[in-house]
Amino acid sequence: MSENLFGLTVAADKGLDDLQCQRLLSENLKYQEIMLQYRCALKALENRLEILNEEFSLRHDRNPIESIKSRLKSPSSIMNKMQKRGLSLDFPTMQANIMDVAGVCDLLFRGGCVLFGKVLKRSV
Known about the structure:
The chain has helices at residues 18-26, 29-60, 75-84, 91-97; strands spanning 2-5, 8-11, 65-72, 102-109, 112-114. Helix content is 47%, strand content 22%. The chain is elongated, with a radius of gyration of 18 Å. Strand 1 (2-5) and strand 2 (8-11) form a beta hairpin. Helix 1 packs across helix 3 (75-84).
C-alpha cells in the first residue's frame, strides 16, 4: 500500500524519519519553488527593516535595531505539523493552512529586547 505525499508516492506502512522528509521535499521542484517564494519574502522584509533602521539612524543619530533573525520551517517540521492536524500532504493545503512556514523570529532593539514571531505569516 502506498500514499501520495506532496506529489510523490511513498510506502504507507513505513513512517518517514526527519532525513526522509528532508529528502522527499528538498528533491521536489514544486517544494523548492514555493520555498524560494518564502525566502524572497523574508529577504524583502529583512531588507525593509534594515532600511527603516538606517533611516532612523540618520534622523535620530542612533540605531534602534541591534539584530534581526528569521527562519524557514524545515520540511520534516512542515510535514509533522500537517500530519498532526490531519491535513492532506499537498502543496495547496500547506500554503492554505501552515501560517508559520517563514517568519522573523527575533527582533532585538537596543536598550531592550522586543521579541515577536510569525511576522511573515502568509506572504506567498
